[in-house]
């Protein structure tokens, strides 16, 4: 069981990068609740509900944040500290993620782990 | 046989359209608390998410009622608990009023005997000055730290199992008006719209109250006050009040739930005994059978009360019968 979840599949997480970015945004603003629910989920239903809540909250923040002249959106999470907002994940990315989670709930845990790590390269 | 000192109550209540427990407000959206729930469907186990009310929310309502009842009986309640801010004696600042500003401290090169005596002094000082912290416990995080465990326990309120899938959550649209004439701020909309998630379900929860621990030290087991019976009476009356008025939950100002208690059982025992959780069908019969078994096994006293039986028509009848029995037994 353990062997199956290691090696090859970890590199396959790139297709969920936009979801990792949204979760990374919550980690950066110290709102760990969605990350913890997704990372600790024991079944796919839990991931679905947590992701829905995370995207709902992210939508609220995204839509309420003003864009600069380049069209980039920033969120001020503390006095004087702002962070660039990632793009909303596409419908296809979310669907692919949920499909993967229904096959192996461990995917959710690994996505949550990625979100808490330092990104390997500068993100767009 | 001894005295009955342990009360356990199981309640089922119907709440139509309520916002009893809100968590996480994001933007203009306030979310109702929901929890994962395992149910059986077609012989298979399945996880569903249902609206829920945390035990903390019910405990808050109970302690508000306790502060009121204690004051009405002329018992001491500290200034924070009096206004429903249950910070308890969490640090030196909040414990100060119980000790006229001088909270006992360790001298530095502390010996074990000194620790035991200072801890005892702090606990008894707080218990004497505040019935809410006596019954509801506290955690003093000073030097030395002192913990008093709550004498009451309360479960989450969860939709009853057999109809859990009929529980619903729905966002309701609300509008808040801004001033239109005169000094309207630039950019402020005339109406702010926001959504509040409402829940509807038949909920069940359990409440236990251990009268034996009221006014008694957690450390030495000795009585700390001489008005123990009066304090127990306040604790019992507070439960009556909170169950009768459904005085718990968030947003009661505009979301006072339609509905009320549809079933209730209560037991009084000498030692801890918890009623079968009301989320299960047949919880009343199960409680009665289990209680009979416990009485036979330990040779202890035990009383059983059920709404709808023995002339107890309403929740108030059940709770009055409980209080009458406690008086008859000399507990309160
Ligand atoms: Zn107090």
TrEMBL record, chain B:
Official protein name in the record: Type I-A CRISPR-associated protein Cas7/Csa2
Keywords for the protein's UniProt record, in alphabetical order: Antiviral defense
Origin: domain of life: Archaea
Role description: CRISPR (clustered regularly interspaced short palindromic repeat) is an adaptive immune system that provides protection against mobile genetic elements (viruses, transposable elements and conjugative plasmids). CRISPR clusters contain spacers, sequences complementary to antecedent mobile elements, and target invading nucleic acids. CRISPR clusters are transcribed and processed into CRISPR RNA (crRNA).
Pfam families: DevR
GO terms under biological process: defense response to virus
NCBIfam families: cas_MJ0381 (TIGR01875), DevR_archaea (TIGR02583)
Ion transport is among the record's keywords: no
Designated gene of the protein: cas7a
Lineage of source species: Archaea, Thermoproteota, Thermoprotei, Thermofilales, Thermofilaceae
């Amino acid at each position: 069981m353990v062997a199956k979840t290691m090696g090859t599949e970890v590199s396959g997480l790139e297709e969920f990068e936009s979801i990792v970015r949204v979760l990374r945004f919550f980690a950066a603003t110290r709102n760990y609740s969605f990350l913890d629910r997704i990372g600790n989920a024991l079944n796919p239903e839990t991931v679905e509900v947590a992701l829905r809540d995370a995207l709902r909250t992210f939508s609220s923040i995204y839509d309420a944040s003003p864009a600069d002249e380049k069209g980039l959106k920033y969120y001020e999470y503390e006095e004087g500290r702002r962070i660039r907002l990632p793009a909303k994940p596409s419908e296809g990315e979310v669907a692919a993620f949920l499909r993967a989670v229904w096959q192996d709930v461990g995917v959710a845990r690994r996505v949550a782990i990625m979100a808490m790590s330092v990104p390997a390269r500068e993100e767009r | 046989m001894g005295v009955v000192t342990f009360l356990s109550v199981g309640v089922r209540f119907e709440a139509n359209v309520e916002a009893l427990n809100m968590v996480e407000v994001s933007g203009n959206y306030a979310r109702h608390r929901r929890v994962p729930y395992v149910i059986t469907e077609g012989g298979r186990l399945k996880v569903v998410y249902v609206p829920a009310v945390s035990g903390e929310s019910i405990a808050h309502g109970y302690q508000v009622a306790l502060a009121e009842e204690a004051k009405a009986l002329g018992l001491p309640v500290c200034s924070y608990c009096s206004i429903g801010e249950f910070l308890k004696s969490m640090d030196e600042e909040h414990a100060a009023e119980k000790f006229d500003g001088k909270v006992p401290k360790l001298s530095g090169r502390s010996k074990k005997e000194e620790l035991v005596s200072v801890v005892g002094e702090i606990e008894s000082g707080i218990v004497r000055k505040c019935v809410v912290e006596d019954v509801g416990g506290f955690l003093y995080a000073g030097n030395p730290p002192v913990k008093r465990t709550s004498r009451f326990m309360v479960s989450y309120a969860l939709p009853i199992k057999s109809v859990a899938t009929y529980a619903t959550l729905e966002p309701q649209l609300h509008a808040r008006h801004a001033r239109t004439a005169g000094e309207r701020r630039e950019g402020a909309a005339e109406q702010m719209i926001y959504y509040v998630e409402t829940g509807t379900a038949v909920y069940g929860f359990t409440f236990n109250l251990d009268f034996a621990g009221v006014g008694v030290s957690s450390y030495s087991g000795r009585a700390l006050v001489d008005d123990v019976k009066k304090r127990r009476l306040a604790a019992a009356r507070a439960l009556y009040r909170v169950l009768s008025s459904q005085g718990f939950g968030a947003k009661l100002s505009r979301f006072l739930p339609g509905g009320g208690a549809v079933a209730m059982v209560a037991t009084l025992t000498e030692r801890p005994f918890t009623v079968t959780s009301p989320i299960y069908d047949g919880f009343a019969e199960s409680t009665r059978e289990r209680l009979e078994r416990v009485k036979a096994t330990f040779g202890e006293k035990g009383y059983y009360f059920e709404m709808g039986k023995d002339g107890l028509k309403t929740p108030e009848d059940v709770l009055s019968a409980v209080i009458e029995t406690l008086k008859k037994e000399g507990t309160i």
